[in-house]
Amino acid sequence: MVAENLKMSHLLLGVFLISCLLTNTIFAQTNPLWTQQKVKNYLPHMTVLEVEAFLEKSDMVIIPVGALEQHGNHLPIGTDFLNGVERCKLIAQQRDILVCPILMAGQSPYHMGFAGSITLSAETILKVHLEAIESLIQHGFKRFIIMNAHGGNRAITTLLVDQINQTTAGVAVSFGPAISPFLGPSSDMPSKVLDRHAGTPETSSSLYLIPTLVQLDKAAAAQLTLPPHLEKMVPEVIANDPTAKMLFLAEGLKAAKTGKRTSSAEMSTIGVWGERDPKEATVQRGEKNTTRMVNAAVKFIDRWNELVLLEKED
């Protein structure tokens, strides 16, 4: 009996060792850099069958339009694209809306003084998105939310929404105006200094949305050199005077070839457009602002779905 038990023990040990060897071999043959988990309603992760099943529940798509551009020394080149995609993913976990990023790069000519920035023409961005949206319409998608995740794309995304509505069978809205009526009050304290591109708001959002890509230890306050007339406007811009803000942004952050002397390399030592140290950013602020935005988007989607149902009942 003892001998038989010993043989059985040896057999089980052998099976265990072979199992471990096979498991290690399998894992050794996979990409050591792969870290992604499958995300619900995220088109790049979905199969044909999953898209077909999705279309039985919803015809709504959200498209983040971002950028590949410098964000100081502490944030990645892909900040706008990545943050936009992550916001869309969070919305899509709460409601059935397809997340469909189409382009990583956007319109960023004023950042070309810093290595790694990429800029596309407005015509290219518009054409690529329209062709992609025509593809989605062919498969049965009809409603589109265009999320501008980069300030420099604002005019392009406005035109994109218009062209979807004017030239295709789709129906489109701009994310910002769509969710505006559903936004709760912001808990952010007003800044007393200029704090825009790659500053504390964007860094806070990134700490929440893409934490492993933020290098906060490399963040620093920029030294700014604005044209004198824009420098004089700054106090009124900070105070949110609408006219001052409009005129300030009409000239600020423009390509070097315009002669306005407001490209990021001409105005900022490190590309951050603000005087505040980005190290003051917090993940808590990023979470609050993201949650506020996601909740507003969910409420808008619910309202759009309600109105579609009323239309079908008629």
List keywords for this structure.
globular, 314 residues, 4-stranded parallel sheet, 4 strands, single chain, mainly alpha, Rossmann fold
Task: Provide a concise account of the structure shown.
The protein has helices at residues 2-28, 48-55, 79-94, 122-139, 154-167, 175-179, 200-209, 228-238, 242-251, 264-267, 283-313; strands at 60-65, 98-99, 143-148, 171-174.
**Helical content, roughly?**
40-55%
**What is the N-to-C succession of helices and strands?**
HHEHEHEHEHHHHHH
Task: Tell me how many strands there are.
Answer: 4
Discrete helix count: 11
What Rg is obtained from the alpha carbons, in whole angstroms? 24 Å
Please indicate the percent range of residues in DSSP E strands (runs of 2 or more): 5-15%
Which strand order do you get reading across the main beta sheet? 2-1-3-4
Give the N-to-C terminal Cα separation.
81 Å
Unreliable stretches: none
> Helix/strand-derived class?
mainly alpha
CATH topology of one domain: Rossmann fold
What's the architecture of one domain, going by CATH? 3-Layer(aba) Sandwich
Instruction: Categorize the overall geometry.
Output: globular
CATH class of one domain: Alpha Beta
The largest sheet, given as strand count, sense and whether it forms a barrel, is: 4 strands, parallel
The CATH superfamily name of one domain is: Creatininase
Rounded average pLDDT: 93
